[in-house]
Automatic annotation (TrEMBL):
Provenance organism: Inquilinus ginsengisoli
PANTHER family for this protein: SPERMIDINE/PUTRESCINE IMPORT ATP-BINDING PROTEIN POTA, SPERMIDINE_PUTRESCINE IMPORT ATP-BINDING PROTEIN POTA
ABC transporter domain segment(s): 3-237
InterPro entries membership: AAA+_ATPase (IPR003593), ABC_SmlMolc_Importer (IPR050093), ABC_transporter-like_ATP-bd (IPR003439), ABC_transporter-like_CS (IPR017871), Mo/tungstate-bd_C_term_dom (IPR008995), P-loop_NTPase (IPR027417), Sulph_transpt1 (IPR005666)
UniProt KW keywords: ATP-binding, Nucleotide-binding, Sulfate transport, Translocase, Transport
Name of the molecule in the record: Sulfate transport system ATP-binding protein
Lineage, highest ranks first: Bacteria, Pseudomonadati, Pseudomonadota, Alphaproteobacteria, Rhodospirillales
Length: 356
């Protein structure tokens, strides 16, 4: 079901948890709400779910203002990180709960509930585990039961608040791939809260970046990564080298004498700006190489991780060394030691007005 949110505002004392949110979510979309702690993600989800009331604004789900619909009748399923399973109930009992508490006329027959629960257990890849208690399950299995419980009421809209936040990285990765498949198969519209940018970019069709109760930028993952609208989005979506620069003509910036092409629209010639360059976008070229966008430097640190090599190089372009991140299995990666001469080929940076 499509969601349309207009002017949604929520204050807690002096804090604007939400400050005039405008958001359109198309039918069947998988949308990630991404933002730092306290940016308003959970509050937005709780208001849609009916667990919290907005001070102002409107939410329409499938064209209907949900303020007039009781939470139970909204057909919204939710899975929250801390919204634990009922410990004293079996897996079966947990999943069946939403159907069993329906008023008489709309409550399915016992046999029908049993059939649905079995179907859901198969869907979340836990067949035959209906008789277990939550304590007899792993963290990942518990979250899948929580998802089956949310799906039991046949929601049109699924709200997920860091559902895998407490799980280890490997299980988390497996579950998010699986969740995306489940979303695609079931025809749901899903809103997923995370503060993990990798998770948001990998999972979602649309990513909404929030900051201080406002939407900073919204778009598909590629648009956000390739065209961050603000310095905040640029640094929030991944590691950046942030270099002071000057706008030196249409489509060019100068960083300590080095000229680079850049999208400088909206910035005045001669104005001070910042140039963001991702460590992964920098190429190491043989020392001594000259040419456009190439700067010479000296390696000051070389750090090895399981899959990458991070080099910090002093170049004179910025007070701090520039970080370069390379795939450690790249065929052309030179072996470097601290103190070696290096040359870096810089890509087109993201440029923003200097922060005042
Ligand atoms: N019940 C409450 N009472 C007072 N302030 C609240 C309440 N709930 C949220 N806030 C405040 O509203 C702001 C937004 O909080 P919210 O939980 O929505 O952020 P969030 O982006 O989900 O953060 P996190 O990633 O840490 O969960 C924060 O400043 C928070 O302290």
């Amino acid at each position: 079901m499509p969601i349309a949110i207009q002017g949604l505002t929520k204050r807690f004392g002096p804090v604007f948890a939400l400050d005039g949110i405008e958001l359109e979510v198309p039918d069947r979309a998988f949308v990630a709400l991404l933002g730092p702690s306290g940016s308003g993600k959970t509050t937005l989800l709780r208001i849609i779910a009916g667990l919290e009331r907005a001070d102002a604004g409107q939410i329409r789900v499938d064209g209907t203002d949900i303020a007039a619909v009781r939470p139970r009748q909204r057909r919204i399923g939710f899975v929250f990180q801390h919204y634990a399973l009922f410990r004293h109930m079996t897996v079966f009992g947990n999943i069946a709960f939403g159907l069993q508490v329906r008023p008489g006329a709309t409550r399915p027959a016992k046999s029908e509930i049993a059939r649905r629960v079995e179907e859901l257990l198969a869907l979340v890849h836990l067949p035959g585990l209906g008789g277990r208690y939550p304590r007899q399950l792993s963290g990942g299995q518990r979250q899948r039961v929580a998802l089956a419980r949310a799906l039991a009421i046949e929601p049109k809209l699924l709200l997920l608040d860091e559902p895998f936040g407490a799980l280890d990285a490997k299980v988390r990765k497996e579950l998010r791939v699986w969740l995306r498949e489940l979303h695609d198969r079931s025809g749901l519209t899903s809103l997923f809260v995370t503060h993990d940018q990798e998770e948001a970019l990998e999972l979602a069709d649309q990513v909404v970046v929030m900051r201080d109760g406002r939407i900073e930028q919204q778009g598909d993952p590629a648009a956000l990564v390739d065209h961050p609208a603000t310095a905040f989005v640029s640094s929030f979506l991944g590691d950046v080298n942030r270099l002071p620069c000057t706008v030196s003509g249409q489509g060019t910036v100068e960083i300590a004498g080095l000229r680079l092409p850049a999208d400088t629209r909206g910035l005045a010639d001669g104005s001070r700006a910042i140039a963001d360059i991702r460590p992964r976008a920098i190429r190491l070229v043989p020392a001594g190489t000259a040419g456009d966008g190439v700067v010479a430097g000296t390696a000051r640190r070389v750090l090895h991780s399981a899959t990458t090599v991070t080099i910090e190089a002093e170049t004179g372009l910025s007070p701090d060394p520039i970080r370069i991140e390379a795939d450690r299995y790249a065929a052309d990666l030179p072996t470097l030691a601290v103190g070696d001469a290096v040359a870096l080929r810089l890509p087109q940076p993201f440029v923003f007005a200097a922060e005042t």
